[in-house]
């Protein structure tokens, strides 16, 4: 009888160990849940950035003034007859 109790207690401990620390156990589950939270926040940030880029693309497709403004700012575009003045900070 005593041997059966010891064997059953050993089995119970082995199963509990596996439940808590084994593959798919409680500890791994908590770690994966934390990782899912991190990834969800990254996805939300990237979706926000994508929406901003999509709005910018639509603006550039529909509005030639936006294209010209961007060309002036980023590429230094000037039209014929315009004079380019660069102000150098001191």
Automatic annotation (TrEMBL):
It is a single-pass type II membrane protein. Keywords: Cell cycle, Cell division, Cell inner membrane, Cell membrane, Coiled coil, Membrane, Transmembrane, Transmembrane helix. GO terms for cellular component: cell division site; cell septum; plasma membrane. It is found in: Cell inner membrane. Residues 29-70 form a coiled coil. The keyword Hydrolase does not apply. Pfam families: DivIC. The keyword Cell membrane applies. GO terms for biological process: FtsZ-dependent cytokinesis. Residues 1-3 are cytoplasmic. Residues 22-90 are periplasmic. Belongs to the FtsB family. PANTHER family: CELL DIVISION PROTEIN FTSB (PTHR37485:SF1). Essential cell division protein. May link together the upstream cell division proteins, which are predominantly cytoplasmic, with the downstream cell division proteins, which are predominantly periplasmic. Part of a complex composed of FtsB, FtsL and FtsQ. This is Cell division protein FtsB.
């Amino acid at each position: 009888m005593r041997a059966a109790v010891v064997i059953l207690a050993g089995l119970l401990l082995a199963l509990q160990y596996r439940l808590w620390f084994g593959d798919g156990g409680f500890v791994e589950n908590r770690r994966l849940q934390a990782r899912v939270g991190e990834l969800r926040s990254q996805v939300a940030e990237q979706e926000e950035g994508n929406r901003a880029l999509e709005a910018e693309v639509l603006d550039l497709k529909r509005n030639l003034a936006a294209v010209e403004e961007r060309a002036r700012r980023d590429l230094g575009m000037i039209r014929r007859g315009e004079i380019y003045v660069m102000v150098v900070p001191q």
